[in-house]
Amino acid sequence: GKPLYAFDYTRTISAANEAAVLKSVVEAVRMQLGRYPNTEEDDANIIKDKGLFRLLSYNQRMAVRHRRNEKRLLKRTIAALEKQIRKKGLDAPDLQRAGGSTLGEVLPGDR
Length: 111
Known about the structure:
111 residues; mainly alpha
């Protein structure tokens, strides 16, 4: 067979495969976001409450800020992936599968 460097990784196997991969990543990011015991808004409220925030140690304050920023990043990742799914038309219910072919295809959003 061909060596790995000889494959064209810019082509997708099929629209259905690309949709499945992107949707799986979105779901994994959502699951990670759901593992936090509180919301981004809860963390923002802790930060806004100056009296409460000052009672926390420096490390605790940095941890709250870091946790809030992680949640923001995860939410932005979800939004970017969902935008890519829409842009490439991968939210359609009748996407074509590869049917065993690995030649790939160029999706509408990639042109």
